[in-house]
Amino acid sequence: MITDTQQMLERQSFIELDARSRAKKLLDESTFSELIDPFQRITSPWLMRQGIVTQADDGMVVAKGTIDGQPAVVLGIDGGFQGGSMGEVSAAKIAGSLELAAEDNRKGIPTRAVILFETGGVRLQEANLGLAAIAEIHAGIVDLRRYQPVIGITAGPIGCYGGMSIAAGLCSYLIGTREARLGLNGPAVIEQEAGIAEFDSRDRPMIWSFTGCEQRHRTGLVDDYVADDADAIRAAVIERFRAGRPEACRSERVAGFLTRLSEVDPGVQATPEQAAAIYGKGFQL
What we know:
- By secondary structure, this protein is α/β, with parallel strands linked by helices.
- It has a domain at about 10-180 and about 220-245: Alpha-Beta Complex (2-enoyl-CoA Hydratase, Chain A, domain 1), CATH 3.90.226.10.
- It has helices at about 5-10, 20-25, 90-105, 125-145, 165-170, 185-195, 205-210, 215-220, 230-245, 255-260, 270-280; strands at about 35, 60-65, 70-75, 110-115, 150-155, 175, 225.
- It has a 7-stranded mixed sheet, with helices on both faces.
- Helix 5 links the parallel strand 5 and strand 6.
- The chain is globular, with a radius of gyration of 19 Å.
- The termini are far apart.
- The model has no long low-confidence stretch (mean pLDDT about 95).
- This is Biotin-independent malonate decarboxylase subunit beta.
- It comes from Paraburkholderia rhynchosiae.
């Protein structure tokens, strides 16, 4: 008889893997091939000018191979470099890969994409350059998802914030773990702009109760809530790819989201339970 403890010991943590290892784990065995790898030294030209040590891959891993026997590209953000923030180069690597995948589909090659979100959003040092590149990522996701599902994964404690949370919302499907968070603005930003009474950035249980992926799954913003297990996450990715494009992506359910939003009383401090009750009703077209 296998106990829960034994099962936990046999798991391989997805969170503890770096971006490159996560990509290898998701792709079929022996199909991993890295594009624009660190040896090409494609890095941000802006960081060194500000005394910031660069990283050879600029914190962005582009891996090509197959998933479930089908052509795929995995775009892994390195949360350990600059907090996974997006600059001109790192964001362009994602946008360009999505554009090439869409072009593959137009040529009859059914390339799909997985994006590993471990990011606080745009690099403040690169400001408008990073924001422009993130906008290109958004356009690339919308283009590619017409042909193949685009799957987002947010697994680690850095979570997914800023303009990249919009990218996550544009994905066909989103997978999250207990450890991850998802939100447009980070807790410190909300507290700074709206005050501690609105959001206490030091109250970690409260933060996770609103923006943690368990709550995001309850409210329909995350499709699959899975354990921190590399095999389980890969299985969830394969299952979603086999399901094909959803009837409508979240960003296409505008009327449904507006209906749910109208039920929220902005004059009353919201609770996680109230949010789950309202948004858990779903979002019709």
